[in-house]
TrEMBL record:
PANTHER family in the record: CARBOHYDRATE DIACID REGULATOR (PTHR33744), DNA-BINDING TRANSCRIPTIONAL ACTIVATOR ADER (PTHR33744:SF1)
Domain PucR C-terminal helix-turn-helix stretches: 292-349
Natural source organism: Nonomuraea typhae
Protein name: Helix-turn-helix domain-containing protein
Limits of the RsbT co-antagonist protein RsbRD N-terminal domain: 17-146
Transmembrane parts of this sequence: none
Recorded superkingdom: Bacteria
Amino acid sequence: MDPRFAALSARLLGRVDELAVELARRVRAAEAELAVVPPDDITAVCAEQLTLSLGHLSGRAEISTASTAANARRRAEKGVPLAALLHSYRVGLQFMWESFVAEAGSDEHAILIDSATEMWLGLDLMSEAIRGAYREVEAERGRDREMAFDALLGTDPVRIRQSADALGLPHRGRFHVIAAEPDAELPPGAVWRHLPTQRLAVLSLPGNAVFPGLRGGRYGVSPAYEQISQTAAALRLARLALAAAPEGEGVSHYGERPVATLIASSLETADDLAQRVLGRLLDLPADDRDALLATAHAWFAAGGSTAGAAEALFCHRNTVRYRLGRVKELTGRSVDHPREAAELFLALETHYFRR
């Protein structure tokens, strides 16, 4: 570094208190987001950062970003946006440059251009330290939020209330739990938790508010509940609603698809019972098996109408009657008998569930 520039930096270092007051004034005027920080605090940080920069430029100290990172952490915890803090440091660099120009004699102006790179390097190092500190604070907040969300699903009433406070949720009101696919969008204002296979959210709504529209994935929504301590139970219902939701995009509110929800609540048991009900039908060659299953499924979908099933399958009504007779022969259950028809319907719904 040019010794003349170092000497010029040393002269400014001797005026650091005076310069800090003016720099703090400029920072406050240039960045409204820093209004949450007391003026004395801003002045103290300006003095600290000027001392750090001018000490390095004068050759009296090695460059260090520890104090810059510490300041950034305090600002992040205070809620100052990252862009606002970075802007304040750019204001600081501009002020330093103007101070150098004002302090330099006519014979020293040339050395400022040659030494400007050192000033920009210092700003780059500080900016990276600031971004790193903000990333750390955000990661810590994310972990704290996850821990609070998990505690919300526990059984300890004290921890549940503390978690609700930490997440900004009331203790009583109108709540819904939303379970969604990992990439699904969640409504504004929802308190969410991102898991590897699902996104979970608790939504607090004013009494008369309409439930928001959900788009961009599959969603399961719990019934409304009034006490935040009921969130764990609501989560189970939201997950069942999601499991019962049709493939593709759509919203399934718990209770809207009772048969699919019943199957999803114990899929292993449902599969076992479906195989027992359908019995020998499932052992047929694939083409025969699929034709009989599709016919029975179409008959139920048509509300028990043979003509409606035939139209849906593009076949004759007699073909539908014949195939339904084969279903009865192989399963021992007739679509004309209410209880047997109900068993067949549940078995078919289970067979086609998520297929």
